[in-house]
Amino acid sequence: MKNPIESLIEKFDQDLSLEQRNYLRFLYENLHLEELSNREQHYFIDYFFKSEPLRNMAAFALELADILHEIRENIPAIEKAERLANGKEQRLYYERKWSELRRQKLKQQTTKNGNVFYVPFHDYKQDPGPMIICLEQTTGMEAYSELCKSMILPLFMNAHREKRDLYIIPYDRQIDVHYRFENGHLNLADFKNFIEYKAKGEAELLPVLQFVRSLLHENQLGSEAEVIIFTEGTPIDGKHLVSKQAKAMLEEMKRKYLAEFSVIAMHEDNFNKQQFWFANKAFFADDAIQ
Known about the structure:
Elements (H helix, E strand, L loop, with lengths): L3 H8 L6 H14 L6 H13 L1 H12 L1 H9 L3 H33 L1 E3 L2 E3 L12 E6 L8 H18 L3 E6 L7 E3 L6 H9 L9 H12 L8 E6 L12 H14 L2 E6 L15 E4 L1 H4 L1
Parallel strand pairs: 3-4, 3-6, 6-7, 7-8
Antiparallel strand pairs: 1-2, 4-5
Helix pairs in contact: 2-4, 2-7, 4-7, 9-10
């Protein structure tokens, strides 16, 4: 039986080097290209050949595979223990409250016809929350744009596997556009725009977090949301992140939507941990950049 990627290459009569085949194989596996129509696959292959940034991102992602695996899977035991100690009791409390609310609603909306009870279980199925990527796109981040986007590519596979919506929000001092990939499925137009999107200037993070809150409001109460912030490390509105209003909003997001925040900063020296007090985890890309 032929390898799927070899069949894809043969179908469109393309001559690729071994290196290019490896890049395309990575994209095929992580972006689920097999789900695209023949026309869409042809478009993607053509774009792959024309887009040097996309090929560079695939190359970065392959080189970073070990680091990404460590980020996702190998959290140090001490950090895990601290996270569980600080968050388990609170998380269990809100999960219990959510379960009680669901049971109460089920009881209220259950109907009876003779000896038959109709219970609307399907209305209260708890779907996984969204995966939301906040991608700083500023003058300071310009040199790291392809690196950051390469780290986002494998998240399509995670979202697809877990049937979670994947949102990507590029930002500087404002939000001009955001992309939604339903259940991690590839939308070629939005994907191309995401790859090519660039912005310059400085970054304000609070408007992005407010926008994330509005997205979470659209999702089912109680669903766990994962928010990943790519940043240079020092937003110009950092002092506002420790204000009472911001703290109240972020605590509400954690409590009401079970949101978990991770930060991937480019340099540890530029990272202001006081301003990112709400992050459950922080990682630094220094090694990858070097």
